[in-house]
Amino acid sequence: MEIIASSYFGIFGFEISIFIMLAIAFGLFMAWGVGANDVANAMGTSVGSGAINIKQAIIIAVIFEFAGAILAGGEVTATIRKGILDATLFVDDPHLLIYGMLASLLAAGFWLMIASSLGWPVSTTHSIVGAIVGFGAVGVGVDAVAWGKVGTIALSWVISPILAGTIAFMLFRSLQNLIIDTENPFDNAKKYVPFYMFLVGFVISLVTIFKGLKHVGLDFDTSTSYLLALGFGAIVAIVGTWWIRGIRLDPAENKDFHFTSMERVFSVLMVITAAAMAFAHGSNDVANAIGPLAAIYGVIESGGMIGAKSILPVWVLLVGGVGIVLGLVTYGHKVIATIGTGITQLTPSRGFAATLAAAATVVIASGTGLPVSTTQVLVGAVLGVGLARGLAALDTRVINKIFLSWIVTLPAGAFMSILFFFALKGMFGA
User: Fold this and answer.
1) Running DSSP on this structure, what letter comes out for residue 144?
2) Measuring CA to CA, how many Å separate 311 from each of 210, 315, 354?
3) pLDDT, tens digit, for every residue of 54-73?
4) For 270-294, how does the pLDDT look when each residue is reduced to its tens digit (9 = 90+)?
5) Distance of alpha carbon 60 from alpha carbon 276, whole angstroms
6) Up-side HSE of residue 195: CA atoms within 13 Å toward CB?
7) What is each CA distance from 373 to 359, 377, 396, in whole angstroms?
8) How many domains does the chain have?
9) Range of the domain at 53
10) Among residues 196, 266, 270, 268, which one has the least CA distance to residue 46?
11) pTM across the whole model
């Protein structure tokens, strides 16, 4: 308690804890990593398919990621991220929790910076989870970690990419059979795309409801959520049908090759899915940066009491939103290139299938309680689209690097977190 009580210093007439200042700085760094890596994943399919360019992707992401983080990022955040640590073990030593969460933010931020510089799409969730597990197991004790929860997260590494890949494979094969591999792909696109627009509206609205709106007190029951999603899907389909009617066949195209005009039909779908996924991502994954900050804030504001939840001021969410935006703008292009063009060549129709499959997987995971990584889900979906075109369409070298980065993420975060934890203990005292 003495360490916490003596950690305040005056600035501009206010008493501010040095630990809160460090938490804000490290949280901003972690949020920057989320923007550089995870947000880039969400935009990768849209840019790689040619539906939007990099500047347009940044504008969309900036608006909707920031809106998601601020409007639906959550006023209340669990202090012990996803229940990985046993809070009761920190009651007598609350400063250890502060050191650990600071170390976790810094470790996850550094790993995301390294991965983003190499163009590796890694999971920001697994980065922070690995960091928390590291300091908890070594710095506090093996019993401090809820290993069953960690095992469930590890299981999702296998299940979620496979599920997303399977959905994407079937979805793209349906596009091939109904539209792409037919004699009149453009005419069939205008005929069948409204149905896919309905699916987009339905699935994306469910993602937003399950992963976003619940954070602002709009926690609908299951039946209401599905009714709202059905209604929004119908609206999207009606508006989409009206919009499609205005698309005309490009006279410059060969009469037997109408793929360019066909892909124009899917381009708008990519913009819609990109915007909605950005909002849902901002509302959900900003917690990876501010979750540990919430733990620190709660302990200090309570005078060393370990609580289950902490109410965060709006400016903390603002820090998370600003960090995400800065990360995307400054470093996001490398991961965007990996997702968009590195794994397989994407077109708007292929990108649409991948993005919709990823969103559907998130919905399924939310309904079953399985923790998933949006990164792994999207990569799995892109792989599924590539497999639907044949193994030759996949770049195995890029895929091997991605899988390796996934394996390394958790131990890398854990190792760095342990180092930072003991460094902080040495600086401020045990």
Assistant:
1) G
2) 21, 12, 36
3) 778 778 877 877 777 666 55
4) 777 777 777 766 766 666 677 777 7
5) 10
6) 10
7) 12, 6, 21
8) 1
9) 2-428
10) 270
11) 0.79
